[in-house]
Amino acid sequence: MPNRVYKKVELVGTSLTGIEDAISNAVTKAAKTLNNIDWFEVVETRGHVQDGKVAHYQVVIKVGFRLEE
Amino acid sequence: MPNRVYKKVELVGTSLTGIEDAISNAVTKAAKTLNNIDWFEVVETRGHVQDGKVAHYQVVIKVGFRLEE
Amino acid sequence: MPNRVYKKVELVGTSLTGIEDAISNAVTKAAKTLNNIDWFEVVETRGHVQDGKVAHYQVVIKVGFRLEE
Amino acid sequence: MPNRVYKKVELVGTSLTGIEDAISNAVTKAAKTLNNIDWFEVVETRGHVQDGKVAHYQVVIKVGFRLEE
Amino acid sequence: MPNRVYKKVELVGTSLTGIEDAISNAVTKAAKTLNNIDWFEVVETRGHVQDGKVAHYQVVIKVGFRLEE
Amino acid sequence: MPNRVYKKVELVGTSLTGIEDAISNAVTKAAKTLNNIDWFEVVETRGHVQDGKVAHYQVVIKVGFRLEE
Amino acid sequence: MPNRVYKKVELVGTSLTGIEDAISNAVTKAAKTLNNIDWFEVVETRGHVQDGKVAHYQVVIKVGFRLEE
Amino acid sequence: MPNRVYKKVELVGTSLTGIEDAISNAVTKAAKTLNNIDWFEVVETRGHVQDGKVAHYQVVIKVGFRLEE
Amino acid sequence: MPNRVYKKVELVGTSLTGIEDAISNAVTKAAKTLNNIDWFEVVETRGHVQDGKVAHYQVVIKVGFRLEE
Amino acid sequence: MPNRVYKKVELVGTSLTGIEDAISNAVTKAAKTLNNIDWFEVVETRGHVQDGKVAHYQVVIKVGFRLEE
Amino acid sequence: MPNRVYKKVELVGTSLTGIEDAISNAVTKAAKTLNNIDWFEVVETRGHVQDGKVAHYQVVIKVGFRLEE
Amino acid sequence: MPNRVYKKVELVGTSLTGIEDAISNAVTKAAKTLNNIDWFEVVETRGHVQDGKVAHYQVVIKVGFRLEE
Predict the structure, then answer these.
(1) End-to-end CA gap in chain K
(2) Are K49 and L63 in contact (CB under 8 A)?
């Protein structure tokens, strides 16, 4: 693992059903254009409320991926 | 949307089953006395342990709602 | 409750299925060697990604337990 | 000033024109129902973007006011 | 303890004599209008200085109380 | 709004005249290459001083935009 | 003092009377099993409220001690 | 630029008119006794409220200046 | 109060007896060379432990004072 | 320097030998695809341990670069 | 890697020569009593000054290690 | 050590060669005008990049020194 360099990008995943699903949506979306995603970190969890109920979750994550050598 | 003002209040929802349910309980409770709730933000996640098992979740959130003009 | 003293230790629970399960795994593990665990606090939520999908969750928690008098 | 107690509430002021105006809108609104407001603290500054331009500012503030004795 | 919801409000207690007294003044004041206060958290400790001496303490706390079911 | 994903990028806008102008410069610049910018968040405000006067403002913001589905 | 190593552990001291006493209770308790405690750092101050009065203080501290060489 | 050393001092500028003016007032004041001021960083923005209106802004900044070699 | 400027300096007060005394010692010391001290803010509370007992408190504060016009 | 805009990206440099080398590796890598890099900021320092020894350093940095006008 | 649990402990390494050496000293010391150390995170860097020179470095780290299954 | 008072000042040391050297430069510079410097704390590490290479390090530190009694 000599001197690898990684990049982190910040995404907001949304979901009607829950926090894990919002994370998964963001990771899946990122994986369409980024290879080598290695990890994610949750930065912030929030959501939208409508008619007195949670309408959807918004989870801000950072995903880290290895840059090609 | 001319010059709307919102207020944020801090609540702690609890749940026997999970984080989303604790959030939902706090939002539902708030909606009984507050109109126009628009969003929530998770501030802190913690919980109670009994007999070596998670007994309930305690999720501190802020809910934001629009003040009547 | 005269002058009780508690200790907090920091653990990382992992899970293939979700955040609550990762918390539960860490609490259960801690309870094998610690009596009187009273609460947990989530410090950080992150996870491992493989083949563009969340492979497992890593939840950093602190657990608090009462020291024997 | 013997043992006065103050309360702080969190508001979000919005404005089409700028940060000071958003603060002012929130303070003015609060002053309609709260007496004795003494100070404000900016917690967060953000805003909405439309068609590639800042559409309005959202400034989260706390206002502090003295509780009646 | 099924699904209880708590609210937190932010107060500033002041005192001529010390930090604990400032906390106590804020809690006592809050208890006049709020039932079921369960805990407080110190957010910030500051104070006023006059003629080169501490004139009074200002302690910002949050108090948490259970909302009626 | 089913499962939209947003990205946040961090920019530093500068301006000779003020904070709002620095924000606006960064948002306008970002909008040249990014569609669907929805919001900005101020991260840090600083500036350059020359000859004992504020020479220009530097405002670090994050802008959030919706990724194409 | 060549290359000494210290460890920090996190404790919660409680007291009916005040913050210093809560700190002291935690330090005294720690000193029963740890030698060479050198310092403490206050992490958080909170407490329990009963019948509208502060019932006890809970002070979270870290204590640092030198590991035997 | 071999091994220059800078110092930072913390100031609070006030203004009746706005945030930039408060920053400017603090920088101008500092420049009366300090040479070589290079930059400022906003630490906190707050203000005083009177009769339900913002009476003046208080902006806490740090200014950085090069120490003479 | 037209455009006053304040400065903040960071001090560490120590005391054998308690937190308020440590604050007071730092404020009194500062007042010997600084006029117009208006307020203090506690930044950090820590202390030295000797023979398993709190030996002295170290309280880091900032004191704010008005600069002469 | 009229109204320049900068972008910041977050990278993780790794190194077998030390923190400066990890920073340097990330900066060098970034400079292959980005012109006009002006500065870096260290966000976090961590590393991997193997067989009880530091195996490599991981330094999270942000690099800032000027966007072409 | 099914449901592994890790523990983190906080240490302060010291060194006469530099930051990496202080980290290394803490990790080496920890490895004498802990198996399976996987990573470290730098929490704080500070040091002692004597006769106007850095006398030694004190680096606060957390080390993470896998608990035996 | 009865009731000593310390002051902390914030400096930015720079160096072409590394972080320890930047710290050392700031401490050495401070020691020319301040007696009794006891410790330093690293606040922030950053640096300047030129031609795709780290040109110099900028380390923000606080130095603490005992005020004469």
Answers:
(1) 11
(2) yes
CATH number of F6-66: 3.30.1660.10
Comparing CA positions, the residue from I9, L43, I11, F51 lying closest to residue H65 is F51
Chain H and chain B touch, per 3+ beta carbon pairs within 8 A? no
Do the chains contact at A23 and C54, CB–CB below 8 Å?
yes
Could you tell me how far CA E47 lies from the centroid of its own chain?
Answer: 15
Round to whole Å and give the CA distance between G28 and G23: 9
pLDDT attached to residue A2: 64
pLDDT values of chain A reduced to their tens digit, one per residue, 69 residues:
568 999 999 999 999 999 999 999 999 999 999 999 999 999 999 999 999 999 999 999 999 999 997
pLDDT per residue as tens digits for the range C11-22: 999 999 999 999
Nearest CA in chain L to H5: L13
Strands L37-50 and L53-66, how do they pair?
antiparallel
Task: Give start and end residues of each alpha helix (H) in chain H.
Answer: 19-31
Asked if D20 contacts H19 with a C-beta cutoff of 8 angstroms, the reply is: yes
Which residues of chain I lie closer than 8 angstroms to E57, CB-CB?
20
Question: Is the confidence at residue L27, as pLDDT, over 90?
Answer: yes
Contact (CB, 8 A) for K31 and K4: no
User: Token pair for residue L34?
Assistant: 């301040």
Whether the per-residue pLDDT at H1 is higher than 60: the answer is: no
CA pair distance J36, F2, nearest whole angstrom: 39
Residues from chain J that touch A9, judged by Cβ atoms under 8 A, are 10
J33: Cβ contacts below 8 Å, ≥ 6 apart: none
Q: Where are the domains of chain H?
A: 6-66
Burial of K50 per CB tally in 10 Å (0-12, 13-18, 19+): exposed
Cα H54 from Cα D61, distance rounded (Å): 12
Q: Does the CA dihedral K23-K26-K29-K33 come out positive or negative?
A: negative
Residue among E10, E14, E25 whose CB faces D8 most closely: E10
- Average pLDDT of E48-63? 98
Please report where in the chains the tokens 């329990």 appear, as a residue: G48
Q: Note if the pTM is more than 0.95.
A: yes
State how far the Cα of L11 lies from the Cα of K29, in Å rounded to an integer: 33
pLDDT in tens, D42-68: 999 999 999 999 999 999 999 999 999
Instruction: Identify the H or E element spanning C56.
Output: strand C53-66
